[in-house]
Design a protein that fits this description.
Length: 484
């Protein structure tokens, strides 16, 4: 008996020693029975150090308090640490998904027409729904009025994916159509000196303002600008004159009353910084587009472009006198503050992208130049931007392959052409939902085509000997002359 007890004690000790080696002291069961029967141990190499996985439901519940105080640093050396473990496949970092809800606040003379073309092409390719102006003859959302929901054409419950035509910023209705939770708000700015010169000359401000006959209309206007109360009535007949001062901030929604209030301007700039996910800079257009591509999780091919709506060389003021430049800055101080602020934030965003940004930028420029060589003829060509207003255009090479021709043609298409195209596209969608042609006008819509339920009128006298005679057919239906 003593021999058997010694033998049994030895076996228990051996089993306990094996359990200590495999499980450590913290996991040693209270009995001498090793738990290999209840949970199979594969190998320490494949063992995941997650007590919630290896314990049964009952053991998990009983072990909750102890688990909170597990010291990871005290793990046996042959077990992998939590930090060094690779996460399961389903926990790997997800790649971003393309954003298909974009509000682009289109500012004047800032390269915004090119951005609009990019958005139009992307939306058309993905069959997205565009928010379009309600008035069929207009291509803006009743600019210069602030945007309102009622200014947009009915969406027919199709949803809203992209807005990219001229609209003056208005937070509440825009946030309603494009909820911030899943939409991206973008816009673009330009150096206020070159932007204002472009606006002043492209919009022909000199004529309504009375400076048309001056040798230097822009410079003379800035030396002797009329008071606001004289310019205001002119704005009703020449809507573009709403851009006569701080045009970029006007497009972005700031009222005239705040143009000379530095505190209000600073607050509004901070407000815009919270509203917009990306403010691009024309002077660094390719960098801006690459930031846009990364923000929206698009592909490089989605942001390829040809410059659109560029003024003819003869319409550009070759040299802006230093004094005129300073006067432009002084007249548009609020716009200058706006541009300086977002110029700084722009480069912070670029820097945050890391070294891969510059590498991708070089690839983008090479692809853009290669596409231009493949698509475009060399020469001077014009395109009608608006009625009677011509800008630089392009002509397509005759030998462009068919698979590339459609892309090249779309990259040359201006916003007016796209608005017309999208209107027709929505109309066709609506027709598919609506019933076919009105039945009342259908010549085949005739109940005589079948006789199953033919009308059988009850005429008095029919089927009875003593009944009254059959009702005679009215004279009006006889087809002959009426009896006297």
């Amino acid at each position: 008996m003593a021999f058997h007890m010694k033998t049994l004690f030895g076996c228990v000790s051996a089993i306990s020693l094996i359990c200590i080696v495999f499980y450590g002291m913290n996991n040693l069961p209270s009995t001498a029975r090793c738990p290999t029967v209840e949970r199979k141990i594969t190998s320490t190499r494949n063992l995941k150090f997650d007590r919630a996985d290896i314990l049964s439901a009952g053991e998990r519940k009983a072990d909750q308090t102890e688990y909170r105080f597990v010291n990871i640093s005290s793990q046996p050396e042959n077990l992998p640490s939590l930090k060094s473990q690779k996460p399961p496949k389903h926990q790997k970092k997800q790649t971003c998904s393309p954003t298909n809800h974009v509000l682009f606040l289109k500012t004047h003379k800032t390269g915004s027409s090119t951005i609009t073309n990019i958005l139009n092409r992307y939306g058309d390719k993905k069959n997205l729904t565009f928010v379009l102006p309600r008035q069929k003859q207009l291509f803006t959302f009743l600019w210069p009025a602030r945007f309102r929901v009622s200014y947009s054409a009915p969406l027919y419950n199709f949803g809203a994916n992209i807005l990219c035509n001229h609209a003056r910023f208005n937070k509440r209705p825009m946030n309603y159509i494009f909820p911030k939770v899943h939409s991206r708000y973008i816009t673009i700015l330009r150096d206020p000196v070159s932007q204002y010169e472009s606006v002043f000359n492209f919009m022909h401000f000199a004529k309504p303002l009375g400076f048309k006959d001056e040798e230097d209309p822009l410079g003379t206007f800035l030396k002797f600008p009329p008071p606001f109360q004289e310019i205001k009535p002119l704005m009703k007949t020449t809507l573009a004159l709403n851009l006569v001062r701080n045009p970029m901030l006007f497009d972005l929604g700031l009222d005239f009353r705040y143009f000379q209030n530095v505190t209000a301007v600073k607050r509004y700039i901070n407000f815009l910084d919270k509203e917009f996910d990306l403010v691009m800079i024309l002077e660094h257009f390719d960098e801006s587009l690459l930031l846009l591509k990364r923000l929206l999780c698009w592909e490089l091919k989605d942001i390829l472009y040809f410059k659109l709506n560029e003024r003819q060389d003869k319409q550009k003021q070759k040299v802006i006198d230093k004094e005129v430049r300073e006067d432009i800055k002084s007249w548009n101080k609020a716009d200058f503050m706006l541009y300086q602020y977002f110029y700084r934030t722009f480069w912070k965003k670029v820097k945050a992208q890391g070294p891969s940004f510059q590498k991708e930028l070089r690839v983008f420029k090479r692809r853009k130049e290669a596409l231009s060589r493949a698509c475009l003829q060399k020469g001077n060509f014009l395109d009608e931007a608006y009625t009677g207003v011509y800008v630089k255009g392009y002509s397509l090479k005759k030998n462009v392959p068919m698979r590339k021709r459609k892309l090249c043609e779309n990259m040359m298409k201006n916003e007016i052409s796209y608005v017309k195209y999208f209107r027709e596209k929505i109309n066709n969608q609506v027709k598919k939902i609506e019933e076919p042609d009105e039945y009342l006008d259908d010549p085949k819509n005739d109940w005589e085509v079948a006789s199953d339920l033919e009308h059988d009128p009850i005429l008095s006298g029919v089927g009875s000997a003593d009944a009254a005679p059959v009702v005679p057919k009215p004279d009006s239906l006889q087809g002959g002359e009426t009896k006297p």
